[in-house]
Specification:
The chain is mostly helical. The chain has 23 helices and no strands.
Length: about 525
Amino acid sequence: MGLWLNIGMMAALCTFIMVGLPVMFILTGCAMVFGGLGIAFGVFDHFLLGALAQRIFGTMTSETLIAIPLFVFMGMMLERSRIAPDLLEAMGRLFGKMNGGLAISVTVVGALLGASAGVVGATVVTMGLIALPAMMRHRYDPAFATGSICAAGTLGQIIPPATVMVVLGEVLASAYQQAQLSQGLFSIQTISVGDLYAGAMIPSLVLTALYMIYQAVLCWWKPSIGPAVPPDEAGNVSLATLVEVLVAPIVLLVAILGSTLAGIATPTESAAVGAIGALLLAGLRAGKGSPAPIHLANAAALLLVVLRSFFDLRLGRQEAPLADQLALVAAAVLTLVLAWGILVSLSRTFRDGILGPTSHATMSVTAMIFGTLIGATLFSLVFRGLGGDDVVRSVLEAMPGGKYGALFLVMLIVFLLGFPLDFTEIVIIVVPITGPVLMQMGIDPIWFGVLLALNLQTSFLTPPLGPTLFYIQGVLPPGVTSQDVYRGIIPFVMIQIIALALVVLFPLSATWLPSVLL
């Protein structure tokens, strides 16, 4: 009976997902119904539910997951600070004079904006509204233009510090620990979000480079697909303008990634740096007033990072060297300067109508993610209590090809789930169920995580059901059709498959950098 309840549980989950109900309610509802049936038929021990409160409390108090609202706030604030139009304009002037230059500009901006914002729909729509009319005005092929925008918009799913990587890293770490405990390894090894960031670094850069190489070669071969912008229309971009536009997002990304990968800060602390940096950047671009408080705050934040790197700033120590005491006093002064800059930025963004919508969007997205996590916790508890782990293990171990056959099956399921669900929901549902079994079979967790992210990115682009294709259809100008979108995205899907194959064939592309940084 437990087997049939497991099958019914998964069937109900898939059915209601296809109907389009909220995933957090589907997970909770399925767990409650089938858990009740399991108790009624005597195949589920209701005492297992006693662990639910502790698991939920552990999820809500996870230090790593605190990074989620901070990264979401950073992304939403950057989106509303209108940095994308300035980036696209500057990149367009820089690359526009070469064939395919506008498409390459879109890819560069998509990588920067996607890594900062991490919201696929927002990135695709923003670039579609800004870049697509300009590309059509300069006689770009509609299929090539829309394909470039869709592909660039999904880069935020794989380029660190993507928000979804935080969820994936936390779920992978839990699955890895469970796999080791199941093997009787009580001195367990752990992985972190920083390890996943490091693992995704090389594949994401290779993928971005492949996009740009394809765009440059195609437009060199067939200039009519992406003609160069005439010199009198392209204009010139000064070095000062380029630095002003590029320095903020690049410094922000370097600060987040550098501090995490170097071990200076945890992902949560890095996310806090990103949120404050995005707020200061938005305050600098919003409203009227002197930029001095915000410039001073930026300088103070940088100096605080330097002080934290070279001095022990812990409070309450009875005996501290004179240098540490002086550094602590300097840190207190710098903190006051930073706080003043933050207050000025809050005031300006509030008056300009940026802070309110950003906070509301942050709360909505965060509530969705944590609600789904709670539902998945209950679902996983009931599924395992009904013997679902044994069923999954039997199916995966029976696959021809051993662990690679099992990995292929999981990736196929993930690819298909990418059509109706988003990244976070798939990770929360699939990884806790299949991850421990795959890792017991010898699959490296970092490699698995990077493959999963690339696979989902491919799914989001694949016609006819890829979500990215629906996002851009809402901003298509007259004369550009859905057929153009489908036709233009196919080459980028092929590039995705090539990148995915490279990571499959060369696992070191995902595992080498984390091993070096250990």
